[in-house]
Design a protein that fits this description.
The structure is a homotetramer of 326-residue chains.
Chain A: E1 9-15, E2 19-26, E3 31-38, H1 45-61, E4 69-75, E5 79-80, E6 85-87, E7 97-98, H2 100-108, E8 111-115, H3 117-128, E9 137-142, E10 146-152, E11 155-156, H4 188-191, H5 193-206, H6 221-229, H7 233-257, E12 261-265, H8 273-286, E13 296-299, H9 307-316
Parallel strand pairs in A: 1-4, 4-8, 9-12, 12-13
Antiparallel strand pairs in A: 1-2, 2-3, 5-6, 6-7, 9-10, 10-11
Helix pairs in contact in A: 1-2, 3-9, 5-7, 6-7, 7-8
Amino acid sequence: MAHENLKTRVVGVEIGLETTTTAVVDVRGNILAKSSFATGDDPNVADFTSKLSENIVNLVEANGGYEMIRSVGISAPSGNYPLGSIVNSPNMPWKGVVPMAAMLRDRLGLAVALGNNAYVRAIGERAYGAAHGLKDFILITLGSGMGSCFYSNGHPHLGQDGFSGEIGHSCIEIGGRQCGCGNKGCLEMYTSSKGVVLTAKEVLAESNEPSAMRGVEPLNASQIITFCNDGDALARETIRRAGVMLGIGLANYASLVNPEAIIITGKLTHAGAWLLDPAEETFNEHVFRNIQGKVKFLTSRLEEDEMDLLGASALAWEVKEYSLFK
Amino acid sequence: MAHENLKTRVVGVEIGLETTTTAVVDVRGNILAKSSFATGDDPNVADFTSKLSENIVNLVEANGGYEMIRSVGISAPSGNYPLGSIVNSPNMPWKGVVPMAAMLRDRLGLAVALGNNAYVRAIGERAYGAAHGLKDFILITLGSGMGSCFYSNGHPHLGQDGFSGEIGHSCIEIGGRQCGCGNKGCLEMYTSSKGVVLTAKEVLAESNEPSAMRGVEPLNASQIITFCNDGDALARETIRRAGVMLGIGLANYASLVNPEAIIITGKLTHAGAWLLDPAEETFNEHVFRNIQGKVKFLTSRLEEDEMDLLGASALAWEVKEYSLFK
Amino acid sequence: MAHENLKTRVVGVEIGLETTTTAVVDVRGNILAKSSFATGDDPNVADFTSKLSENIVNLVEANGGYEMIRSVGISAPSGNYPLGSIVNSPNMPWKGVVPMAAMLRDRLGLAVALGNNAYVRAIGERAYGAAHGLKDFILITLGSGMGSCFYSNGHPHLGQDGFSGEIGHSCIEIGGRQCGCGNKGCLEMYTSSKGVVLTAKEVLAESNEPSAMRGVEPLNASQIITFCNDGDALARETIRRAGVMLGIGLANYASLVNPEAIIITGKLTHAGAWLLDPAEETFNEHVFRNIQGKVKFLTSRLEEDEMDLLGASALAWEVKEYSLFK
Amino acid sequence: MAHENLKTRVVGVEIGLETTTTAVVDVRGNILAKSSFATGDDPNVADFTSKLSENIVNLVEANGGYEMIRSVGISAPSGNYPLGSIVNSPNMPWKGVVPMAAMLRDRLGLAVALGNNAYVRAIGERAYGAAHGLKDFILITLGSGMGSCFYSNGHPHLGQDGFSGEIGHSCIEIGGRQCGCGNKGCLEMYTSSKGVVLTAKEVLAESNEPSAMRGVEPLNASQIITFCNDGDALARETIRRAGVMLGIGLANYASLVNPEAIIITGKLTHAGAWLLDPAEETFNEHVFRNIQGKVKFLTSRLEEDEMDLLGASALAWEVKEYSLFK
């Protein structure tokens, strides 16, 4: 007693399309050490998992040791928490259902939890960020796609099979833009990076006004945001239209969920007020009247490069401790 | 001990636009007695509440007595469960925030809970109907408007202030039909009774085909359903279009919530397969791919005239017992 | 749609030391059909499980058919809900950890849940009996041993590994009567059938008063209760002492848990007020002062031969639906 | 938007018998500033509350300002969380039910939550200490009395009226030592500071062995612990006996609750292994056999003077944000 070996650290993992990062994190969300490697495009997931396992073991041994680590949390694209698997990812090199949590647990001998980007960020913002103390909120990710997670009375909503939060594939315009998912009019075709670029092309075609966007090929969302900040009127109009679509989509969402706040994360938030002001204004026009003006629009309070790692670490605390070796 | 006076019955109340009904219900959802009176349009809510209180006392005294009653549950249009109030009802004679639960509790000396139609029905279907055993499901009401409630991991989702589930006022068509709420393109303008009538007019205007709907003034949804069953092609087209819009709206909802089932209730379900087949088909085209074909489409298993009363009785069991007189 | 095959029945199973009973039960707790067979003492649990499976299939086929059955719930001595297993039962013929739920699921192709006696009864009383509407209560079983389950804010408390509720093995008298579990002074050595018999012997030895209990060998708790009701003073003293020990044990329990009610079930409750009056009186002397007089003492409102079957059926609704064949 | 004024700090308050301390704490449990004043023995609770309010306002204004503060949490002896009140405190100068949370909220215009010592510490250990990541655990306070709180599946168990956890007043010895609560044999009469002193007197009376405890008047628990560490055999025997009683009491508790860990806090833990080794040993002899050797015995990982403040701050995040002035 008192001699009890309390494990006071976890490992957070962010599997990104390009880079995979691991971190040792303590109880209060301090990142003690970090390490990265290229995710690669090897379709052999066993090789990737072995590489990930090795990376974690090395990091951990160099920073306090294996016996202080309680468990591991992973943020992965198309991650499914109840299954602990990456499921039908359109972007990762591994197809179908990949039981990454079980595969890593077998290599490390530690409990492993896995969730998608939005799920993990929601847990992270609640533990250490803008959602601390909130029981009902929505977290949005705006990047190459659009994802979300919402909390219901203090718990992240999972649904029957852990496939909830797919706001990016809600239909905002019947018969609208073709989405990679096979449907038309999906919200993310208007509010994600690729959606913004499509809108830019429409905006450019509609007028003869000069714009820094003209002739840039390929044009991407970051450039548009830069032009926007530089005063380019058509770039601003592009972002404004994304904001309007975002506002309507979030109003529909909030009318269903009645959140205290909506936390918007992801690269597109670099557009700041150019995106978020029209979004909030449109939101309040469209949301159910009893909650108009009551939903807080927030951005993350976490560093962009810590957001997913902190979320993954907070997820790691959710699973039961388990060790092959104790 | 053993002499303990266990209260084994509750009162369920359904406040409808025209009729208010009260019922004494036992633990297992048997309605033991019922009584009704005209809701009326008296803007004085205190008078209505006194009438309701009297009705309950009379019913209860004639059926086993007051001392067997544990609590009271109310289904009311625009009801808000956390507030126990009717809030900004567009249809009831009482405006603003009406604290009906507290008013009735003061008259009866019993705990009173109140929720809106959809919330109460969801609780009722879970206790006694098609949602028994489900942890994540959506319940839809399709009547003069469109409402909903969803369960998150075994609990009805309320949100920050109890104003969740407003699917009827999600925007399904940007700049679409004008809704009474002030916005355009609200889903209920396509899928509720009034929406169906508007669609019928469009359908009639688009063709010269003969139809029983022509010349009927005012035309209502019940008639259209009857014509539909009688083989009227334009009536069927009208209902089919409502089904398509319903399917898209529910797909958006289910992509967010990932329910095991969607339970559709209300008068419009009398249209049966004419409405529900296109709805289910469109739903599966639009819902997020990982749950396509996995969400059960269900109608209520409760009698139409018991659905709200049973739900209200199930709600009554949710509140803490309380008595002025014990 | 509407054609959806909703499963509206479950099977409840009570595995008793002597008899195993199965029942088909509907949503509202009506037992539609029942069947029994001798549990036997065959140490081969696979044989028992096959017999159980056959019994269920026959019952179900003769009463509405397999396709109406959603899932199966089992009440088993020493049952552990999270493991779905019978664990270290001192009384059943099967030793160690018996994964009964998985074994039966493999034979039936249906989801199966399993819990111990007290856990299952608590769920049953909440669904259909005296605990309906209660969020915090304790259920006690008083039979050959003593068990319990308590609810925490509307959910049965399980604890880390599902081994909670072992009130029978709390120490009520340091260095007291030797219990079969290896310890001394366990509460069930004073309040269960065997405890009552031990007390009777003490009571008889302490005085020369005549008593119907004298010379009866072996004496059992049912006889003592009968003598008690017949006016036998020493039998009454015996039961009174059990009541006092029960009252202290429950006071300790309630001071930890602060329940709205304690529901006492099992054969010993046949002693009625002879047991429960001294129990309640002692309870109120010993329980933490802020809740004195506030905890309801209740007995079950369910038939004795339905209590476990209804509980098992209610448990069956808790598991996710699953079918090998759909 | 983005301009949204997110409140990122809370105030934690510890009302002690002698000193009241307030602290400004951030999201991650960093104490940014602290202030104290003498609690005093003025029976006028309004005066005390005004003094407390003033202390908070001054502290807050000097450290970042009022507009950063989201809410306030209070640790108070005999605090009741659902009532937000101090109830029938045997030690504080204010008698009966003192609605401290409401009184302070009215003065500050901020949401205020209040709980007792054990409840607040449990929340604090889960947020920032030894219980991080645990879903089922028991926290014990061992000081002038003995209190506790346990978690049920990730939530602190409150019970029907918030009066749970009173392990100190469970009866460990029928007819044993007289307790101030009116009963005999309460556990805290053996395991708290006062209990240890009573045991010391018994130990001294039983033998003629020399001991530093002899002749010390008044003898207190701190001295006994010091003597113990100095090698005094009778002091060690005194503490050992407290450990044995603690072990039995905790075994009874754990057999009901099945925790992953028991966290023991309070001044008596300064006795270290002299107390905790016999406690753990006795615990494992008495606890229900299926969990023997599985329950972790832990002490707090928080600084003794931060434990209650951090717990109070964690409690502050649990209440809904509220402001008179926004």
